[in-house]
Amino acid sequence: MSSSPPRSLRLLAAHLWPHRRAVGCGALLGLLGGVGTLAEPLAAMAVVDALADGSPLGGLLALLTALVVGGALVAGLSSYVLQRTAESMVAAARDRLVSHILLLRVPELDRLKPGDLLSRVTSDTAHIRSAAGQALVDSGSALLVAVGSIVLMAWIDLPLLLVCLAVIAVIGAGSVLLMPPIRRANERSQRAVGEVGALLERSLGAFRTLKASGAEQRETVSARAAVRRAWRDGVRAAAWTAATHVAGVVTSQAAFLVVLGVGGARVATGALDVSGLIAFLLYLMRLTGFVVQLAQGVSGLQSGLAAMRRIDEVERLPVERRGAAPRRGAQAPAPASVSFTGVSFRYRDDAPPVLRDVTLDVPAGGLTALVGPSGAGKTTLFSLVERFYDPAEGTVSLDGVDVRDLPLAHLRSMIGYVEQDAPILSGTLRDNLCYAAPDADEAEVRRVVALTRLTALVERLPDGLDTEVGHRGTTLSGGERQRVAVARALLRRPRLLLLDEATSQLDAANETALREVIADVARTTTVMVIAHRLSTVVDADQIAVVEGGRVRAVGRHADLLRCDDLYRELIQAQLLDA
Ligand SMILES: Nc1ncnc2c1ncn2[C@@H]1O[C@H](COP(=O)(O)OP(=O)(O)OP(=O)(O)O)[C@@H](O)[C@H]1O
């Protein structure tokens, strides 16, 4: 994505704007320090003149000392205020980015790499510090000192200044030309760091599969390639930065030598006196200091601007508008009905439809099972109820209200959703259970634990509910993970429970436990289950057979066995497996 410097500067300004007061304060201090810095050579000039005249020196020396010490203190304070502001900018960017990412729409996250997003939050934001620090520090005092020096140098000896500026302009122009390549190299390097994050996230997300597949070496090689790319571009940026440094140093040396030569000649002709030349040289040192600082700052500024663009890319992605969530328990706990009417959906505009003209009524209360071959579109139906995606045609409604007309937070507060792989978050068992209902009290947690047949597990764990369950719940069995996920969904007090049954076989005890849990819950809540188990299907009040994105039959077990070939086949396959 090409990006013009004005856009970068707009981004920098947008990051700076909320901190304008602190920036203003730091800049004012910088200006104050700059005034001291500018006054120093004049005081030095007066000291030299006093030495030549033999006039008293005490007062002048005290002034010079005060200017040096006071100037340094004020400059230090200004630097602290501005660096602190830069840190605040980093923190603000991280805050904004994290809340934006968590509100992203599901389709956006489908195509992004979590590891890359992670690196934008942690690593790219850190680059803002250099851009902001550099831009801020250079903007106040340094600019004043540079401009002030030029004015005072013109006052001392205009022709000498013109010669000196010509030298600085010719060599300094080189630094400006180096800015775009530095920015490009920084941008590529940061992208490669993002790739490393994405690769690592992929590997750690499937760590056991990685081990079992013996893929350590291959993944290391891929990560190493991205690390090398980051290194190459980092080195390229370093080379350009070194070139700007050379340009800065050459500028200052050349200007110094020219002023010494031309200024010496003018002293010899009497056009300039010695104290004037000394003051001129002192101002020149400040001016070239500014040029060198600017040349060095170009690199920091460019890496920060590149990072701001990567952050901006994420901040431009559309987010969900959730609206306010009602208080848990504020809504009637009555079971909700669900209807799909003429629903068609595709994941991408260029992909074939996954659902075609689906019409299905799920009555309030009881158990509705969805069965069908893998890839038929069952999980997609759940995703549309949750509004992770919206249908291209048709409507999904809850209690007769189109889900698109309900505030998102309100809609989701009515639904408990258990994904097929029943993700467990790192933390304690209690953290996991209360994830969707942080305000649930102990009695309610205990009741749901009993309902989901988890009491024995809680008693077995060393710290009961407060036992850490490990990253992704590695210390729990598949059946336990699923029941924990069901308990988590139930603590939300849902009016509709969407349960994507695990495809893997559960042992008999776990299967019975799950069947009982589902039956219990279906007494008070509408339960929709994507069923992979015979027991779930047989117990269902209604079964919908989904095939190729269509609902081909709806009925009870006995009816479907009689009149639907696909259903009969699916059941026979189950019986063979059982
Ligand atoms: N996020 C996605 N992006 C693109 N295509 C997807 C996405 N999720 C699912 N699909 C595709 O949509 C189709 C239906 O998937 P879905 O998960 O709804 O099927 P399913 O009936 O639940 O299958 P299973 O029983 O195996 O879980 C499949 O072809 C799948 O590859």
Sequence-ordered SSE layout with sheet pairings:
Blueprint: H1 5-16, H2 20-53, H3 58-102, H4 106-111, H5 114-156, H6 158-177, H7 179-205, H8 207-212, H9 216-269, H10 274-315, E1 338-345, E2 355-362, E3 366-371, H11 378-385, E4 393-398, E5 401-402, H12 408-413, E6 415-418, H13 429-433, H14 442-451, H15 455-460, H16 478-490, E7 496-500, H17 508-522, E8 526-530, H18 534-539, E9 542-547, E10 550-555, H19 557-563, H20 565-577
Parallel strand pairs: 3-8, 3-9, 6-7, 7-8
Antiparallel strand pairs: 1-2, 1-4, 4-5, 9-10
Helix pairs in contact: 1-10, 2-3, 2-5, 2-10, 3-5, 5-6, 5-7, 5-10, 6-9, 6-10, 7-9, 7-10, 9-10, 16-17, 19-20
Return the string of H and E elements.
HHHHHHHHHHEEEHEEHEHHHHEHEHEEHH
Q: Reading side by side through the largest sheet, how are the strands ordered?
A: 6-7-8-3-9-10
CATH architecture of the domain at 7-315: Up-down Bundle
Span from first to last CA? Answer: 55 Å
SS elements, strand count = 10
Radius of gyration: 35 Å
User: Which stretches are low in confidence, meaning pLDDT under 50 for 5 or more residues running?
Assistant: none
CATH topology of the domain at 7-315: ABC transporter transmembrane region fold
Shape estimate: elongated
Task: State the share of residues found in helices, binned by percent.
Answer: 55-70%
Tell me, what is the CATH class of the domain at 7-315? Mainly Alpha
**Sheet bearing the most strands, described?**
6 strands, mixed
Strand content bin: 5-15%
How many alpha or pi helices? Answer: 20
**Bound molecule kinds, no repeats:** adenosine-5'-triphosphate
The named CATH superfamily of the domain at 7-315: ABC transporter type 1, transmembrane domain
Structural class: alpha/beta
Task: Tell me, rounded to a whole number, the average pLDDT.
Answer: 84
